[in-house]
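From the pipeline queue, job 12 of 40. The input is one protein chain; the requested action is below.

Action: predict structure.
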Amino acid sequence: MENVFHISNCSMENQIKFATCTLLGSALTWWNSHVKTVGHDVAHAMTWINLKKKMTDKYCPRGEIKKLEIEMWNLKVKGTDVVSYNQRFQELALMCARMFPEESDKIEKYVGSLPDMVHECVMASKPKTMQDAIELATELMDKKICTFAQRQSENKRKQDDNQQQQQNKRQNTGRAYAAGSGEKKPYRGSKPLCSKYNYHHDGQCAPKCHKCNRVGHLACDCRSTANANTANNQRGTGAGQKPTCYECGAHGHFKRDCPKLKNNNRGNQGGNGNAPAKVYVVGRAGTNPDSNVVMGTFLLNNRCASILFDTSADRSFVSTAFSSQIDITPSTLDHYYDVELADGRIIGLNVIIRGCTLNFLNHPFNIDLMPIELGSFDVIIGMDWLAKYQAVIVCAEKIFRIP
């Protein structure tokens, strides 16, 4: 009604007439009785504030308001349904104005009832208005739900892949042994003999791991702790074979002694002068809860970012998609960094965003980031930042601490 007064430029002396003519049902009956009791002129001479008080006393008794205040006091987010929590909180806040004399009191109550997964980040951002707090909490929760759904989908896909690999392994292995005697039975099936791996199977050969030299999986899925170069060396000295280099494929040397790598290193040192750097970029670490990495969601320049703490990365990086949200002009370096990606590609970078702010539980830290295409994360924090702030990574608990 007050919004209508403002929009229609209704004068104060006409506010009561305008408001009371919109009453319906029992409210209209109540007003007509009041007019009949005090008279038409006295009733319409009442101020809008007095009319609001009369209607509140009539239709919002103290007992009902008390019930709403109790509901507001106990209101919390159910599961991850922040949207319903936002709606009910704002409805109750209108009726329970006595609980929140200041806007900051209302914000404190709203943030305090958020679930732990977003509470710390919202609190650390120090929202100035209720709208800021609601928007940030909703954004954080949407991101958490999305990450959880991706993680479930990835785990399901991995389980299906493992089951398929086991099934292929059983189908491709055609060996049979006599029980008790240990002698090999002759093959009586119809599958052709594979000249490559010396067993019977149909179709393409099963994948072979070059780390443990077993059939049925690839090196990226190998769980063996044995080193492939050691295995090659043993075969070379025991069976007259030479070790194989996994860099160039030639026989007679290991990857660490590969001339190709040595030539590349000399070229970098005497040619373009690029500085080497490594970063874990494209991978599935961010969606696998069993990965031996430390990660989390924190604020970067007051924006929620998924962050990986990677001790194998020499520098710190930010995804090109996320860097577009940072209102800082990038700087150009006088030299390039050769960045080795997880898929083996090497790219040159000479752009850096200086003076970004990381917020860890309401503690700001300065960080310089190089923009690059990232896979599962918005930010990768490397040894340059970890060493600067003497960060300690607790591998067993997958957390990091700053002294």
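Job complete. The chain has a mean pLDDT of 77.
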